[in-house]
Design a protein that fits this description.
Length: 274
Protein backbone atom coordinates (compact mmCIF):
# COMPACT_ATOMS: atom_id res chain seq x y z
CA UNK A 1 0.00 0.00 0.00
CA UNK A 2 1.41 3.35 -1.07
CA UNK A 3 1.03 6.35 1.25
CA UNK A 4 0.25 9.72 -0.28
CA UNK A 5 1.76 12.88 1.16
CA UNK A 6 -1.59 13.80 2.76
CA UNK A 7 -2.08 10.40 4.36
CA UNK A 8 1.52 10.41 5.59
CA UNK A 9 0.93 13.75 7.31
CA UNK A 10 -2.23 12.34 8.90
CA UNK A 11 -0.35 9.31 10.22
CA UNK A 12 2.40 11.50 11.67
CA UNK A 13 -0.15 13.81 13.30
CA UNK A 14 -2.00 10.82 14.80
CA UNK A 15 1.26 9.42 16.11
CA UNK A 16 2.23 12.72 17.73
CA UNK A 17 -1.21 12.98 19.34
CA UNK A 18 -0.89 9.47 20.70
CA UNK A 19 2.56 10.25 22.09
CA UNK A 20 1.28 13.44 23.74
CA UNK A 21 -1.62 11.56 25.30
CA UNK A 22 0.71 8.82 26.49
CA UNK A 23 3.06 11.40 28.02
CA UNK A 24 0.20 13.23 29.76
CA UNK A 25 -2.55 10.65 30.39
CA UNK A 26 -5.94 11.42 31.85
CA UNK A 27 -6.18 10.30 35.46
CA UNK A 28 -9.93 10.83 35.55
CA UNK A 29 -12.53 11.98 33.06
CA UNK A 30 -15.50 14.09 34.16
CA UNK A 31 -18.34 14.02 31.63
CA UNK A 32 -15.73 13.29 29.00
CA UNK A 33 -13.37 16.10 30.13
CA UNK A 34 -9.97 14.73 31.22
CA UNK A 35 -8.14 15.66 34.38
CA UNK A 36 -4.56 15.12 33.26
CA UNK A 37 -1.52 13.77 35.01
CA UNK A 38 0.33 17.08 34.54
CA UNK A 39 -2.37 18.95 36.47
CA UNK A 40 -2.12 16.57 39.40
CA UNK A 41 1.69 16.62 39.27
CA UNK A 42 1.75 20.42 39.44
CA UNK A 43 -0.45 20.47 42.55
CA UNK A 44 1.45 17.60 44.18
CA UNK A 45 4.76 19.39 43.58
CA UNK A 46 3.41 22.50 45.31
CA UNK A 47 2.18 20.45 48.27
CA UNK A 48 5.53 18.66 48.59
CA UNK A 49 7.36 22.00 48.47
CA UNK A 50 5.47 22.98 51.62
CA UNK A 51 6.84 19.96 53.42
CA UNK A 52 3.80 17.66 53.23
CA UNK A 53 4.28 14.03 52.31
CA UNK A 54 2.38 12.86 49.23
CA UNK A 55 0.61 9.59 50.02
CA UNK A 56 -2.56 7.90 48.80
CA UNK A 57 -4.75 9.95 51.12
CA UNK A 58 -3.33 13.22 49.82
CA UNK A 59 -3.67 11.96 46.26
CA UNK A 60 -7.35 11.14 46.83
CA UNK A 61 -8.02 14.55 48.38
CA UNK A 62 -6.38 16.34 45.43
CA UNK A 63 -8.25 14.30 42.84
CA UNK A 64 -11.58 14.74 44.63
CA UNK A 65 -11.09 18.50 44.70
CA UNK A 66 -10.18 18.51 41.02
CA UNK A 67 -13.31 16.52 40.19
CA UNK A 68 -15.49 18.85 42.26
CA UNK A 69 -14.03 21.97 40.70
CA UNK A 70 -14.41 20.49 37.21
CA UNK A 71 -18.08 19.68 37.86
CA UNK A 72 -18.77 23.23 39.03
CA UNK A 73 -16.81 24.70 36.12
CA UNK A 74 -18.80 22.63 33.65
CA UNK A 75 -22.05 23.76 35.25
CA UNK A 76 -20.92 27.39 35.08
CA UNK A 77 -20.16 26.97 31.38
CA UNK A 78 -23.53 25.32 30.81
CA UNK A 79 -25.30 28.35 32.27
CA UNK A 80 -23.22 30.73 30.14
CA UNK A 81 -21.43 32.34 33.07
CA UNK A 82 -18.12 32.21 31.21
CA UNK A 83 -19.56 34.44 28.48
CA UNK A 84 -20.76 37.24 30.76
CA UNK A 85 -18.87 40.58 30.43
CA UNK A 86 -17.96 40.88 34.14
CA UNK A 87 -16.56 37.35 34.16
CA UNK A 88 -14.50 37.98 31.02
CA UNK A 89 -12.98 41.11 32.55
CA UNK A 90 -12.14 39.26 35.79
CA UNK A 91 -10.63 36.42 33.77
CA UNK A 92 -8.46 38.84 31.82
CA UNK A 93 -7.27 40.59 34.98
CA UNK A 94 -6.55 37.27 36.72
CA UNK A 95 -4.57 35.98 33.74
CA UNK A 96 -2.60 39.22 33.58
CA UNK A 97 -1.82 39.15 37.31
CA UNK A 98 -0.68 35.53 37.05
CA UNK A 99 1.52 36.37 34.07
CA UNK A 100 2.99 39.42 35.82
CA UNK A 101 3.71 37.56 39.06
CA UNK A 102 5.26 34.64 37.18
CA UNK A 103 7.45 36.97 35.13
CA UNK A 104 8.60 38.94 38.18
CA UNK A 105 9.36 35.72 40.03
CA UNK A 106 11.47 34.49 37.12
CA UNK A 107 13.14 37.91 36.83
CA UNK A 108 14.23 37.81 40.46
CA UNK A 109 15.54 34.26 40.04
CA UNK A 110 17.66 35.36 37.08
CA UNK A 111 18.79 38.52 38.88
CA UNK A 112 19.37 37.44 42.47
CA UNK A 113 20.47 39.88 45.15
CA UNK A 114 24.13 39.19 45.86
CA UNK A 115 25.61 38.68 49.30
CA UNK A 116 27.87 41.66 48.67
CA UNK A 117 24.92 43.94 47.89
CA UNK A 118 23.09 42.73 50.99
CA UNK A 119 26.08 43.39 53.22
CA UNK A 120 26.52 46.82 51.65
CA UNK A 121 22.87 47.57 52.42
CA UNK A 122 23.47 46.45 56.03
CA UNK A 123 26.46 48.77 56.34
CA UNK A 124 24.36 51.63 54.96
CA UNK A 125 21.61 50.78 57.42
CA UNK A 126 24.06 50.95 60.33
CA UNK A 127 25.37 54.26 59.03
CA UNK A 128 21.86 55.70 58.82
CA UNK A 129 20.82 54.67 62.33
CA UNK A 130 24.09 55.97 63.74
CA UNK A 131 25.89 54.81 66.86
CA UNK A 132 23.50 56.46 69.32
CA UNK A 133 19.78 56.21 70.09
CA UNK A 134 17.81 58.91 71.81
CA UNK A 135 14.80 58.81 74.10
CA UNK A 136 12.86 62.07 74.07
CA UNK A 137 9.43 63.51 74.55
CA UNK A 138 7.85 66.55 72.96
CA UNK A 139 4.88 68.85 73.01
CA UNK A 140 3.58 69.78 69.55
CA UNK A 141 1.53 72.97 69.16
CA UNK A 142 0.27 75.02 66.22
CA UNK A 143 2.06 78.34 66.76
CA UNK A 144 5.38 79.68 67.98
CA UNK A 145 3.59 81.74 70.61
CA UNK A 146 1.99 78.61 72.07
CA UNK A 147 5.38 76.87 72.13
CA UNK A 148 6.97 79.82 73.96
CA UNK A 149 4.15 79.72 76.48
CA UNK A 150 4.82 75.99 77.08
CA UNK A 151 8.53 76.71 77.62
CA UNK A 152 7.62 79.40 80.12
CA UNK A 153 5.34 77.02 82.02
CA UNK A 154 8.07 74.39 82.16
CA UNK A 155 10.51 77.02 83.40
CA UNK A 156 8.18 77.66 86.33
CA UNK A 157 8.18 73.98 87.27
CA UNK A 158 5.32 72.78 85.08
CA UNK A 159 4.92 69.02 84.60
CA UNK A 160 6.01 68.08 81.08
CA UNK A 161 3.79 64.99 80.80
CA UNK A 162 0.73 66.82 82.10
CA UNK A 163 1.19 69.74 79.71
CA UNK A 164 1.71 67.31 76.81
CA UNK A 165 -1.55 65.53 77.56
CA UNK A 166 -3.37 68.86 77.75
CA UNK A 167 -1.87 70.72 74.80
CA UNK A 168 0.09 68.49 72.42
CA UNK A 169 -1.37 68.00 68.93
CA UNK A 170 0.59 64.79 68.30
CA UNK A 171 -1.95 61.93 68.53
CA UNK A 172 0.81 59.32 68.67
CA UNK A 173 2.46 60.64 71.82
CA UNK A 174 -0.06 62.95 73.50
CA UNK A 175 -1.59 60.33 75.79
CA UNK A 176 1.91 59.06 76.68
CA UNK A 177 2.93 62.45 78.01
CA UNK A 178 4.74 63.26 74.79
CA UNK A 179 7.00 60.19 75.00
CA UNK A 180 8.45 59.22 71.59
CA UNK A 181 10.40 56.19 72.81
CA UNK A 182 13.84 55.32 71.45
CA UNK A 183 14.83 56.50 67.97
CA UNK A 184 17.93 57.24 65.85
CA UNK A 185 18.46 60.84 64.79
CA UNK A 186 17.97 59.77 61.18
CA UNK A 187 14.45 58.68 62.03
CA UNK A 188 13.32 62.26 62.68
CA UNK A 189 13.02 65.32 60.45
CA UNK A 190 16.21 67.37 60.51
CA UNK A 191 15.16 70.43 62.59
CA UNK A 192 13.88 68.03 65.26
CA UNK A 193 16.95 65.76 65.22
CA UNK A 194 19.33 68.74 65.22
CA UNK A 195 17.64 70.10 68.34
CA UNK A 196 17.75 66.72 70.10
CA UNK A 197 21.45 66.23 69.34
CA UNK A 198 22.30 69.52 71.10
CA UNK A 199 20.44 68.74 74.31
CA UNK A 200 21.95 67.38 77.48
CA UNK A 201 20.17 64.58 79.31
CA UNK A 202 17.10 66.08 81.02
CA UNK A 203 17.40 69.30 79.04
CA UNK A 204 14.50 71.11 77.33
CA UNK A 205 14.73 73.23 74.19
CA UNK A 206 14.63 76.89 75.20
CA UNK A 207 13.49 78.08 71.79
CA UNK A 208 10.62 76.48 69.82
CA UNK A 209 11.61 74.04 67.07
CA UNK A 210 9.66 74.37 63.84
CA UNK A 211 9.01 71.47 61.44
CA UNK A 212 6.35 70.81 58.81
CA UNK A 213 4.20 69.38 61.61
CA UNK A 214 4.15 72.52 63.73
CA UNK A 215 6.15 73.87 66.69
CA UNK A 216 7.87 71.53 69.14
CA UNK A 217 9.13 71.78 72.69
CA UNK A 218 11.50 68.86 73.24
CA UNK A 219 12.99 67.22 76.31
CA UNK A 220 15.85 64.70 76.01
CA UNK A 221 15.39 61.90 78.54
CA UNK A 222 18.25 59.53 77.79
CA UNK A 223 20.92 58.42 75.29
CA UNK A 224 22.32 54.94 74.68
CA UNK A 225 24.45 53.05 72.19
CA UNK A 226 22.43 51.95 69.18
CA UNK A 227 21.06 48.44 69.48
CA UNK A 228 21.71 47.37 65.87
CA UNK A 229 20.36 43.86 65.15
CA UNK A 230 22.97 41.40 63.83
CA UNK A 231 23.28 40.89 60.07
CA UNK A 232 21.67 37.44 60.07
CA UNK A 233 18.56 38.82 61.78
CA UNK A 234 17.89 41.46 59.13
CA UNK A 235 19.40 39.79 56.07
CA UNK A 236 16.07 38.49 54.71
CA UNK A 237 14.37 41.87 55.13
CA UNK A 238 17.27 43.67 53.46
CA UNK A 239 17.12 41.28 50.51
CA UNK A 240 13.39 41.92 50.12
CA UNK A 241 14.04 45.66 50.09
CA UNK A 242 16.75 45.26 47.46
CA UNK A 243 14.47 43.05 45.37
CA UNK A 244 11.74 45.68 45.57
CA UNK A 245 14.21 48.29 44.32
CA UNK A 246 15.13 45.97 41.44
CA UNK A 247 11.48 45.65 40.44
CA UNK A 248 10.93 49.41 40.72
CA UNK A 249 13.96 49.98 38.48
CA UNK A 250 12.64 47.43 35.98
CA UNK A 251 9.24 49.14 35.86
CA UNK A 252 10.87 52.53 35.38
CA UNK A 253 12.89 51.13 32.46
CA UNK A 254 9.79 49.56 30.89
CA UNK A 255 7.86 52.82 31.23
CA UNK A 256 10.76 54.68 29.67
CA UNK A 257 10.62 52.45 26.59
CA UNK A 258 6.84 52.38 26.30
CA UNK A 259 4.47 54.68 24.42
CA UNK A 260 1.52 55.28 26.74
CA UNK A 261 -1.44 57.27 25.43
CA UNK A 262 -4.30 58.29 27.72
CA UNK A 263 -7.36 58.42 25.47
CA UNK A 264 -9.44 59.90 28.30
CA UNK A 265 -7.18 62.93 28.80
CA UNK A 266 -8.89 66.29 28.32
CA UNK A 267 -7.47 69.54 27.06
CA UNK A 268 -5.34 71.23 29.69
CA UNK A 269 -4.76 68.07 31.71
CA UNK A 270 -1.30 66.76 32.51
CA UNK A 271 -0.02 64.75 29.53
CA UNK A 272 0.80 61.08 30.18
CA UNK A 273 4.40 60.03 30.68
CA UNK A 274 6.12 57.98 28.05
Amino acid sequence: MKLTARSLIAVVALSLTSLAQAADPALITVNGKPIKQSTYDFIAKDIAARGQKIDNNVRDVVLNKLVSSELVAQEAQRTGLDKQPDYLIKEELTRRELLVNTFLGEYLKKNPVSEADTKAAYDQYKKEVGDKEYNARHILVATEAEAKDVIAQLGKGGDFAKIAKEKSKDPGSQEKGGDLGWFPLGGMVQPFSDAVSKLQKGGVTQTPVQTQFGWHVIQLQDVRDTQVPPYDKVKADLQKQLQQRQLEKLLTELRGKAKIVDSTATAGSTPPKK
